[in-house]
Q: What sequence folds into this?
């Protein structure tokens, strides 16, 4: 497939559009827009950029935008892509928040928000459940999950020590399994 | 002293940026701990409501940080907070992008990524608990609010509808005064 590298202006409009259309998950939309429609990247290149974005800390879509902006237009491209991906959703969110500030005390609004908040908590819970499926039931992993839920979610411990210990244990278990499967 | 608050917001979120393994959702309990439990700048219910509003708007989840900043210090708070949570990780992403070949092909990277999944799952699960607690706090009935959270988890796992349908149903259920 022939790819077409974007100019800095196209970077801006492209990411502005992706930011605006991404409702509940921007990544699938980003793939369609960048690979299929605009043809800035081949499917393989996109997959690789995405893999790096997911490996590093930070919001995946922001990491991805910065890397793609940098790839095509240097540091200026990175800044343009960063601003463009967040600009429209931020404006919409701020408008909603101002609306909430002026009407949040209204009983109907606050009742509706109670319902939305309970559902939003459930959406996050379902995300954890689905991601857990990729663990394929290893008991060591399940122990890390359980300890993190109790320590952070119930006991309210600080994140950093839990993150360091949980990551170190998880990586140690993954390394041991990888070594085991290589021998077998 | 609004400037002092903006500086504090920037410091807090910049520090959280490099801990955002697996995106922003795993960070929610830590944000709750800092802003609700430690500083008492927000209530549990406000925290859950801000997240709910973000879910009902388009765009990446990271915007919840802008909503928190907005509640504490208005529009400047939103901009400073969002910039601070994104900048360190975005700079790292830019810096690492020329290493992408090594980063994605190596066996070590795969082990690293696989090893981070359990703690990420645990932290997202903890986020769900913290948000459910906040949602229930000012609801008409804590039991029904928690039940709605559980039903949402069940429906999403089983049928995977578009989240907007569920959020809209939640708004309706709330409007009817059921939770």
A:
């Amino acid at each position: 497939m022939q790819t077409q590298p974007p100019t800095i202006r196209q970077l801006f409009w492209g990411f502005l559009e992706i930011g605006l259309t991404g409702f509940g998950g921007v990544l699938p939309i980003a793939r369609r827009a960048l690979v299929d429609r605009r043809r800035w990247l081949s499917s393989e290149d996109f997959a690789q950029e995405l893999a790096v974005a997911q490996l590093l800390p930070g919001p995946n879509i922001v990491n991805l935008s910065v890397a793609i902006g940098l790839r095509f237009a240097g540091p200026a491209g990175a800044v343009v892509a960063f601003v463009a991906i967040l600009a429209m959703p931020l404006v919409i969110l701020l408008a909603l928040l101002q609306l909430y500030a002026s009407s949040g005390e209204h009983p109907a609004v606050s009742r509706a928000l109670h319902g939305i908040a309970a559902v939003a908590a459930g959406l996050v819970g379902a995300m954890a459940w689905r991601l857990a499926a990729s663990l394929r039931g290893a008991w060591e992993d399940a122990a890390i999950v359980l300890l993190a839920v109790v320590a952070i979610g119930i006991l309210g411990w600080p994140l950093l020590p839990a993150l360091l210990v949980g990551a170190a244990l998880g990586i140690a278990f993954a390394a041991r399994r990888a070594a085991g499967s290589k021998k077998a | 002293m609004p400037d002092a608050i903006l500086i504090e917001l920037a410091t807090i979120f910049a520090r959280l940026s490099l801990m955002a393994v697996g995106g922003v959702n795993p960070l929610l309990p830590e944000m709750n701990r800092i802003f609700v439990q430690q500083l008492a700048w927000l209530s549990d219910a406000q925290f859950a409501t801000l997240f709910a509003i973000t879910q009902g708007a388009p765009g990446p989840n990271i915007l919840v940080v802008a909503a928190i900043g907005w509640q504490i210090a208005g529009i400047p708070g939103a901009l400073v907070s969002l910039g601070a949570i994104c900048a360190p990780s975005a700079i790292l992403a830019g810096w690492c992008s020329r290493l992408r070949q090594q980063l994605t092909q190596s066996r070590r990277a795969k082990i690293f990524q696989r090893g981070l999944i359990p703690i990420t799952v645990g932290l997202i699960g903890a986020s769900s608990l913290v948000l459910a607690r906040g949602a229930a706090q000012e609801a008409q009935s804590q039991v029904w609010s928690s039940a709605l959270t559980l039903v949402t988890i069940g429906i999403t796992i089983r049928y995977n509808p578009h989240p907007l349908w569920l959020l809209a149903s939640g708004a309706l259920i709330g409007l009817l005064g059921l939770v």
